């Protein structure tokens, strides 16, 4: 029996097929999962885990999500990156690690998973702080990706700082608040540096207590006003962790949004 929404964070998942390095440091690695079954090649899906950028959360907790996507026929890469509380973590390495990984992983995956990865840039799936990192890459290196599925993303760093989400997590990432390091916010905050070229779907649960849905609503409204191909799917009965749980009622919404990105469809803003 499930012990609650957080149970997915420690649920065992099958081991990845192979771990590859996109850099020279211990945390510059990614776990690759081969798509299950025979089927057509699909673009690589790069999963960027959350945990408010902190060292105590690593890629292991996205194992069920990654295995669930592989079961649907997607080749999957679970990215690790340097995090706050680790040597080198925080500004700017946490952000640049993910940007470097997204640029490098399609080639590594094609080599390690021959005939299973469609040519071309990957799709990004980022949850929570990983959603922020995915939107950051979309804004700063849009040519390296085909689309972003942002699940309960921290899409407004300045507002997250004001709300003191996870006890100072944004200040730990960027080294201060918006008035102290404004140039860092201008570069790293999706609500300021809006990704306008990359198709994106934001999925957020109305019951989310870790990252309030107000951040996604404001971000999507601003992005759409700027002409960005971004949409929002609001899930009325979903909290923060159901979005990464293949056993949750939210899973069909998550996989449907990913499918729409893969097919190049422009999704519509919806409330469900």
Automatic annotation (TrEMBL):
InterPro entries (UniProt xref): AB_hydrolase_fold (IPR029058), BD-FAE-like_dom (IPR049492), GDXG_lipolytic_enzyme (IPR050300)
Keywords, ordered alphabetically: Hydrolase
Gene3D superfamilies, sorted: alpha/beta hydrolase
Superkingdom assignment: Bacteria
UniProt signal peptide: none
SUPFAM superfamilies found in the cross-reference section: alpha/beta-Hydrolases
Pfam families referenced in this protein's UniProt entry, alphabetically: BD-FAE
An MF annotation (GO) of this entry: hydrolase activity
Stretches assigned to the BD-FAE-like domain: 31-222
Name of protein: Alpha/beta hydrolase family protein
Source organism of this protein record: Micromonospora inyonensis
């Amino acid at each position: 029996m499930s012990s609650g929404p957080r149970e997915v964070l420690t649920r065992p998942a099958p081991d990845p097929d192979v771990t590859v390095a996109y850099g020279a440091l211990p945390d510059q690695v990614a776990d690759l999962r081969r798509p299950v079954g025979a089927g057509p090649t699909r673009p690589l899906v790069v999963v960027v885990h959350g945990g408010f950028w902190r060292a105590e959360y690593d890629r292991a907790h996205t194992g069920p999500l990654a295995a669930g996507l592989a079961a649907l026929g997607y080749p999957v890469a679970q990215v690790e990156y340097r995090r706050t509380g680790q040597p080198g973590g925080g500004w700017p390495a946490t952000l640049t690690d993910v940007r470097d990984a997204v640029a490098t992983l399609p080639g590594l995956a094609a080599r390690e998973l021959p005939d299973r990865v469609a040519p071309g840039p990957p799709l990004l799936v980022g949850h929570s702080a990983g959603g922020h990192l995915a939107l950051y890459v979309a804004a700063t290196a849009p040519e390296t990706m085909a689309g972003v599925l942002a699940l309960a993303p921290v899409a407004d760093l300045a507002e997250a700082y004001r709300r003191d989400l996870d006890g100072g997590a944004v200040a730990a990432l960027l080294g201060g608040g918006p008035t102290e390091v404004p140039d860092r916010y201008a570069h790293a905050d999706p609500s300021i540096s809006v990704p306008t070229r990359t198709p994106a779907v934001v999925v957020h649960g109305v019951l989310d207590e870790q990252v309030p849905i107000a951040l996604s609503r404001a971000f999507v409204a601003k992005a759409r006003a700027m002409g960005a191909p971004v949409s929002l799917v609001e899930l009325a009965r979903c909290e923060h962790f159901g979005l990464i749980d293949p056993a949750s009622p939210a899973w069909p919404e998550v996989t449907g949004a990913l499918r729409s990105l893969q097919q190049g469809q422009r999704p519509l803003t919806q409330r469900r």
